[in-house]
Amino acid sequence: xxxVTIDPITRLEGHGKIEIFLNDEGGVANAYFQVPELRGxxxxxxxxxxxxLPRITPRICGVCPDAHHMASAKACDAVYHVDIPSxxxxxxxxxxxxxxxxxxxxxxxxxxxxxxxxxxxxxxxERNILGVIQKVGLDVAKRVIRxxxxxxxxxxxxxxxxxxxxxxxxxxxxKSINEEERARLLEIGQGMVEFGQFSLQLFGDVVLKNPDYxxxxxxxxxTHRTYYLGLMDDDNRVNFYDGHVRVVDPDGREFVRFTxxxxxxxxxxxxxxxxxxxxxxxxxxGWKGLVDGADSGVYRSAPLAxxxxxxxxxxxxxxxxxxxxxxxxxxxxxxxTLAYHWARLIEMLYAGERVVELAxxxxxxxxxVHKVPDATPDEGVGMVEAPRGLLIHHYRTDSNGIVExxxxxVGTTNNKAAICMSIKRAAEGMIKPGKEISEGILNIVEMAxxxxxxxxGCATHALPGHMPLIVTVxxxxxxxxxxxxxxx
Amino acid sequence: MVSExxxxxxEPCTAGRAxxxxxxxxxxxxxxxxxxxxxxxxxLADRLPVESCCIIEAGAAGLRLLPLLDGxxxxxxxxxxxxxxELGGTACPGRLHELTADQLHSTLTLHSSHEPSLGDTLxxxxxxxxxxxxxxxxxxxxVSDPFTFDEQMTPELTARVxxxxxxxxxxxxxxxxxxxxxxxxxx
Lengths: 488, 187
Known about the structure:
The complex is a heterodimer of chains A (488) and B (187).
Chain A: E1 2-7, E2 17-22, E3 28-34, H1 41-45, H2 53-56, H3 65-79, H4 86-117, H5 129-136, H6 138-159, E4 168-169, E5 172-173, H7 179-208, H8 211-218, E6 227-232, E7 244-248, E8 254-258, H9 263-266, E9 267-270, E10 279-282, E11 299-300, H10 303-309, H11 316-329, H12 339-359, E12 379-386, E13 389-397, E14 403-409, H13 411-414, H14 416-430, H15 440-450, E15 469-474, E16 480-486
Parallel strand pairs in A: 6-11
Antiparallel strand pairs in A: 1-2, 1-15, 2-3, 4-5, 6-7, 7-8, 9-10, 12-13, 13-14, 15-16
Chain B: E1 3-4, E2 21-26, H1 36-44, E3 53-58, H2 66-69, E4 74-81, E5 96-99, H3 118-127, E6 135-142, H4 155-158, H5 161-177
Parallel strand pairs in B: 1-3, 2-3, 2-4, 4-6
Antiparallel strand pairs in B: 5-6
């Protein structure tokens, strides 16, 4: 069997190695994504007071510290059996929505978007944020920078620090906000709504109106029929901070719903000998390998999966954009992987609208933002939707709140199986028996990846990207037949 | 005194940015050798005059860093680094490298692939009119294990902190006023 190696992936957090195995005829037999392991996190947590974990877990990596902080604080609430004050829930959700708006903007304009705005075949030297600015104007750069800066301003205001926040405690938040702060939050939220609308307009202009891009979006190379899941409110509308998880089957029918403590009844983790990272799957369906369809327990998570699993968005402009997306595809669920980018922008708009809504909530300036936990701590699960998928923190402590066991399922891990499948599908389109493998495989495989916005910083931790991208094709004896390389 | 990124109100960072140097220690405090940048800037706080510089810790790259850089005369980043062939020789944990822009991909925090590269970040900031430092120095310290959860660095690296801090302080003073600091020590 021949082996193709792509190592590593540019613009992807963490170091990943792609192995593409060819069959005797020269077609693609399998594709695997391998990442190194982040060692000893559970052991590191054991023996520590559980209330330290909301400050420790954000340090796993610098990409989405807020998601870990929030999931961890929620897990601590559960460990201490405390129902936090309503104003604290709203402030946490406001803060978290601002974080999502900033993170999604970065992905679209810096990571995933350049492929679309500059075109998938553009020179890699131009397929970056600077190329995007050249094409769509300097004002966009100012807006992206502002979105990130203001997201961090919100995080600093409510979380104490912009990068590794500390503000969420077991029982609520460490501080409330005053009227002046509320007014500023409202102003920031309104800016995020405007930018969300602008970004969807830009996506419409450069992608939806370009038949070549739409062919790519619709192609089999980027399509998988899988289960989808996401965190929902009581009306089955997307919620990043709280609610129940709804799972839909590949035809969009509700398959199961579960609350945080029930996750182990629904999700199991499959272990492969070639990967340190486990593959979560739906227990009731079972692990059938890296395949899609209703008989395979593989599910997808993150923006498109959230929208597919939901019945709508909770805010008016995002709901409008949601309806436009599904009417464009004409089906629900949408199985086209590249629609993740579109879904991400709809979520970015929703996040901004949610900041505005919550900043106008009469309760938001209430001083009642913390309830001192008084129950004996034991075990608890916290769940949020991270930008890159459902994030679960599960802690068990002794009666003094000292951690005995910690388990994390991080956003990207949910999509591990789907990412492998997407790489295989994309490679199948590019590798044909008897034909030389062209440089185009680098772009197409990268695009398959980036749609998921994967981050292995906390899934495993890893070397950063922007390194040379190398495809090595070997014969059955391991001799190098061909090497395709692009320096990072 | 070392402040964490974002604690803008904490002295000495309020002393004004013009004509002064921002020194940024990068890394995660819980990933063994990844913390070297943080340990070094803490050690620098006793070695450099407050009127010349502001020392902060951060665990981020790209657009997360951009607002911090506005208005300073110079910026010095101190980050953990994994040896790669282009650095020459063989791996030597504890060795200090002054990096060029195309060597940053082996740094552990500064070169996040979920953010624009340092070069793109600075270009972006300048294009939109931010007053970013003309002089940007990246100091990378070779490390052996930045992947294991641990609050302690490897003993070999811990033993190098004082000497490395002397060397970095010397380089900083040299670039500010031409006054040579203590002799650079060999690893």
